[in-house]
Design brief:
The chain is an alpha+beta fold. It contains 13 helices and twelve strands.
C-alpha cells in the first residue's frame, strides 16, 4: 500500500474543517500551529461527522457509512455504522486500534489513528503489512472529555517526530454522538485484534473485511457510555472476513473461536469487566474484545463459516431500552 495513511486522513480532516458548520464541528489552531477539530467536547457533532471521524481512525483507506435502520431483529432496529476495507490488518491494527494511552500533566486520552504509524513505527504490524510511513505529518484521534492543550500537542508531535504545525488532532468524548459512532465502527478491529493477539493467526491472510454494528444510544454519563459502546460490539457487532489460508489449512477452528460468545467470560457487560480491571481499560482480558457474529469466507476452498449470534436481550439491557406501548 503506497499511499500514506496520515496524508489520506489529513485530506478528510481538512474537509471536516471546510464543512464544519454543517457538520456541527468546531476547529481551531493552537499557538504552536497544531490544528484541533472538536467533534463533541464543546461542539455538538453530527452523524456525518462521526462517519468521517471513524474513517480518519482507519487511516482514510477504507469505506465508512451509516445504515438506517440496521436491523437486528423484528423487535428492534437501529442506525448502524458500516466499515469496509481492502487492507484489514493495516487499517485496524496499524491505525484504528486505540493503542496509545496518552497522559500529559492531568490530561488523559486514548489515541487512535495513523499518527501511531510514526509513534510505533517499529511495531511488528508494520513489518507484517510492509507499510512504512514516509510523510512528515501526523493525524491522531482522541477519545477524551477535554480539548488538548499546547502541552499535549507538543508531546504528541514530539513522540511522532513531526513538527506541531504538521499535527492534526480530532477529539470526541465517549459520551457524544461522534464517540458512539466511532466506537461502534470498531467491530472489524476487535476481530482482527483477537485473531492476532489471542489466537496467533497470520492476519495478513485476511484479504478483505466488512462489518456493521448498531450505533450506541448517546449517554451523557461517560462511564455508562463506555460500557454501552463496547457492549454494542460484543453483543451486536457483525463481521465478515475474506481469508486466503495456506493450502490444506482449515479456517473452521478460527471461526468457532472468534466471536465474543466463545469466551468463557461471555455474558458479562463491559462495565463489569472494567470494574474487575480496577478501571484500567488496558487490563481487561484480551479475549473480551470480539464481535458478536462472525462469517469467515475461505477464498481457497469457497467454504463459509458462520459463528456467533446477536444477543438482543443483553443489548437491550445494556442500552436501557424501555418498551413503549400505545394504549
Amino acid at each position: 500500500m503506497s499511499e500514506s495513511m496520515n496524508v489520506e486522513a489529513k485530506k478528510i480532516a481538512d474537509k471536516m474543517v471546510k464543512d464544519e458548520e454543517k457538520l456541527k464541528l468546531k476547529s481551531f489552531t493552537l499557538e504552536n500551529g497544531t490544528l484541533v477539530i472538536d467533534c463533541g467536547v464543546e461542539a455538538k457533532g453530527s452523524i456525518k461527522g462521526g462517519e468521517l471521524f471513524t474513517k480518519v481512525c482507519l487511516g482514510g483507506i477504507c469505506d465508512v457509512g451509516i445504515s438506517i435502520p440496521g436491523d437486528l431483529s423484528d423487535i428492534m432496529a437501529m442506525p448502524a455504522v458500516k466499515v469496509k476495507t481492502d487492507f484489514p490488518a493495516l487499517t485496524t491494527l496499524g491505525s484504528q486500534k486505540a493503542g496509545w494511552n496518552i497522559s500529559v500533566n492531568g490530561y488523559h486520552a486514548m489515541g487512535s489513528g495513523p499518527a501511531q504509524a510514526h509513534k510505533f513505527k517499529d511495531d511488528k504490524i508494520y513489518e507484517l503489512t510492509g507499510y512504512t510511513e514516509e510523510s512528515d505529518i501526523a493525524v491522531i484521534t482522541l477519545e477524551a472529555n477535554k480539548l488538548p492543550t499546547e502541552e499535549v500537542a507538543e508531546f504528541i508531535a514530539s513522540e511522532c517526530g513531526v513538527s506541531t504545525e504538521n499535527l492534526t488532532i480530532l477529539v470526541a468524548p465517549t459520551s457524544s454522538l461522534v464517540g458512539s459512532i466511532q466506537i461502534s465502527g470498531r467491530a472489524l478491529e476487535v476481530g482482527v485484534y483477537k485473531m492476532y493477539e489471542v489466537m496467533g493467526f497470520d492476519i495478513t491472510k485476511i484479504t478483505y473485511a466488512a462489518g456493521i454494528t448498531p450505533i450506541t444510544p448517546v449517554d451523557p454519563d461517560t462511564l455508562k457510555a463506555m460500557g454501552k459502546t463496547n457492549d454494542a460490539i460484543i453483543f451486536g457487532g457483525r463481521t465478515y472476513y475474506y481469508i486466503e489460508p495456506d493450502e490444506g489449512e482449515s479456517l473452521e477452528e478460527l471461526a468457532v473461536n472468534l466471536p465474543s460468545s466463545s469466551s468463557e467470560n461471555y455474558g458479562k457487560s463491559f462495565l463489569e469487566f472494567f470494574k474487575e480491571a480496577d478501571g484500567d481499560f488496558y487490563k481487561i482480558p484480551k479475549e473480551v474484545f470480539a464481535p458478536a457474529q462472525v462469517i469467515v469466507n475461505d477464498m481457497v476452498t469457497g467454504e463459509m463459516f458462520h459463528t456467533g449470534s446477536i444477543d438482543l436481550e443483553r443489548l437491550k439491557k445494556s442500552f436501557e431500552v424501555k418498551e413503549v406501548k400505545f394504549l
